[in-house]
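User: Just a sanity check before I run the rest of the batch. Below are the structure tokens for the first item. I only need the designed sequence back.
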């Protein structure tokens, strides 16, 4: 007599890989998300990823330091579940904007664990070309993100030739990005996010708007 066959446990397909852009410019419709979106689509094509989405922090900036911030919470979850994140900011006082700082402070330790991050800065002065490496990369690493390549810096004079600038960067960064997102790398699941240290009220309101 044969024993009944045990029911097969349902299998859940892993989430499709995504590239998520975060624009930390406090001005809606600025050149920062335009540069970030151009870079994200080139990265997605290089890695064979179809899903590219943009989170523009300027559209819910008033929520980020509020007691209730449902749009910010949804954005946090989406970013934490990304395969690749392009974190973009104009250079403000040789660093990144207070708006981006406030948003990243909403994450707890390792809130971006498993996400492959690309810091992108738009700078009016070539002397600030290392702002992404010196200031933004350490924060992303502290949150658990993997940053396998150098930051992508675009000066204002290069905005007219984004394709060339991104192509030159991708010629160096493409292989590290491919290794970081290749077979064996688990697409991060949704990560519960804690509350970080926060920033003073009003931070980021006066930043430059590139």
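Assistant: Here's the designed sequence for the first item:
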């Amino acid at each position: 007599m044969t024993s009944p066959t045990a029911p097969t446990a349902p299998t859940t397909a892993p989430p499709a890989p995504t590239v998520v852009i975060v624009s930390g410019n406090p001005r809606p419709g600025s050149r920062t998300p335009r540069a970030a979106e151009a870079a994200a689509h080139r990265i997605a094509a290089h890695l064979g990823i179809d899903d590219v989405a943009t989170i523009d922090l300027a559209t819910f900036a008033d929520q980020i330091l509020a007691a209730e911030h449902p749009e910010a919470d949804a954005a946090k979850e989406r970013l934490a579940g990304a395969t690749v994140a392009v974190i973009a900011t104009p250079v403000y006082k040789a660093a990144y904007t207070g708006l981006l700082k406030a948003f990243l402070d909403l994450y707890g330790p390792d809130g971006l664990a498993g996400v492959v991050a690309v810091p992108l800065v738009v700078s009016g002065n070539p002397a600030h070309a290392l702002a992404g490496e010196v200031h933004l990369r350490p924060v992303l690493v502290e949150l658990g993100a993997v940053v396998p390549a150098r930051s992508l810096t675009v000066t204002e004079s290069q905005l007219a030739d984004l394709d060339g600038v991104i192509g030159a960067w991708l010629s160096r960064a493409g292989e590290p990005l491919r290794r970081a997102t290749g077979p064996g790398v688990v697409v991060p699941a949704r990560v519960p996010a804690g509350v970080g240290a926060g920033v003073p009220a009003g931070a980021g309101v006066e930043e430059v708007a590139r």
